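Ex. 9. Protein: N-acetylglucosaminyl deacetylase, LmbE family.
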Amino acid sequence: MKSASISESTLAGQIWNSAAQLDNIPVIGTQSLVPAGARAVVIAPHPGDEVVTCGGLLQLLSANGHPLQLISVTDGSASHPGSQQWSEKRLSVFRSQESVEALRRLGLPMHSLKWIRGGFTDNALAEHELELTQFIARYLRPGDVVFSTWGADGVSDHDAVGRASANAATLAGATFHEIPVWAWHWPARDYAAIPWHRARKIRLDSWTVARKSHATHAYASQLNGEPAIGIAPMLPRVLLERMRLPYEIVFV
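Predicted structure tokens for N-acetylglucosaminyl deacetylase, LmbE family:
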């Protein structure tokens, strides 16, 4: 995960908890998003993004018996530049271990889960978008339903993965849906930039939300920054609070 520029002092003025349009988003069921028997593919720019984007949806799809494939594009090792505690070498191993624990907390079937790790470099995905598109396309097949970050989410890696995933899905004959992450933390004045007509709400019960929150806290490396060297938490308090909402939103 990469931290956007979020000011805790503007919490009340962000789209996620102030936009009136949120109350009017149509509800969609998982059976409408992913047809019976279809495989769901979740493409995460960094380890942990699969939980932040759709940790609830993953639980619902797993409970309904859908085959799941995860693609982690990077290993997330560049999240703490200059840190001695969280060096790139340590994070290249630790972040994947955090993801294993997070997915276990979601209750996903680890024995049958297909999980691809791309090994691309953090903060440089926009420079390798064509290569990334070709990489993703190799793991998709006709009839898949693909979920990834919104191509206008406002974070370079998220945007690049969203665009590459959309192009790869087209090449493979798969269906593609986008999920915004950091866009919900834009100031309320930017609400018009959200494609509300494409938004659909997936309702989550309290247990699903609790498991998702518990899974997010498996990312110990991302919960605390290092103020001494100017590194903010990759999972700031406001993001953790938003993730306790009883729904997730996808753009269809």
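Check your answer against this statement. Strands lie at 40-44, 68-74, 114-120, 145-149, 175-179, 199-203, 247-251.
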